[in-house]
């Protein structure tokens, strides 16, 4: 993987996700774009986005995911403090989170679950939930290091039992989808994902590998 801004090159790739059996999408924070590559060959397929705050533009995309219906790409923009939704061809269809009283302040990650967008709001130290049209629904969490409190939340995922696993700078916490705290670990994480056998994969900000939790 080469460093640069040409097709197939990268500047600070922040997140990656499978888009189909052969393809991956990569969010490039410093090139302000999303690239699609063939995972079998490593060849460039297509890209969209360039630096800016308008439609079709991105600023420091921190993560990318596929909407639950599999038909839309969801991009979290750290720099523009918003979420943008695109077609699979990179055409913009929706943006939200950057206006109104519950605007985002440097979001990091998003998961789509049951027609909801669940977003970690880093600087507001909370999780915000939006409906399928990008309208604010509710939030949970507040600044602190107690159970159910958050200190700069980053990665999140939904496990095989419908629990929300949420990373902040001191641990992973488990919540219901309504925001009720149900458990925690002592691992210092950055991002988290689940495996089909219920094991949990964790990357740490200062770690040199991936940890596996049961």
Question: What is the C-alpha radius of gyration, as a whole number of Å?
Answer: 16 Å
Second rung of CATH, namely the architecture of the domain at 2-140: 6 Propeller
The CATH topology of the domain at 2-140 corresponds to Neuraminidase
Strand order of the largest sheet: 1-2-3-4
**Helicity level:** under 10%
Number-wise, the strands total 19
For the largest beta-sheet, the strand count, sense and barrel status come to: 4 strands, antiparallel
Instruction: Name the CATH class of the domain at 2-140.
Output: Mainly Beta
Poorly predicted tracts of residues: none
What percent strand?
Answer: 35-45%
Distance between the amino and carboxyl termini: 32 Å
Order of helices and strands: EEEEEEEEEEEEEEEEEEE
Structural class: mainly beta
Number of DSSP helical runs: 0
Q: What is the mean predicted local confidence, pLDDT?
A: 89
Say which CATH homologous superfamily of the domain at 2-140 is assigned.
TolB, C-terminal domain
Give the overall form.
globular
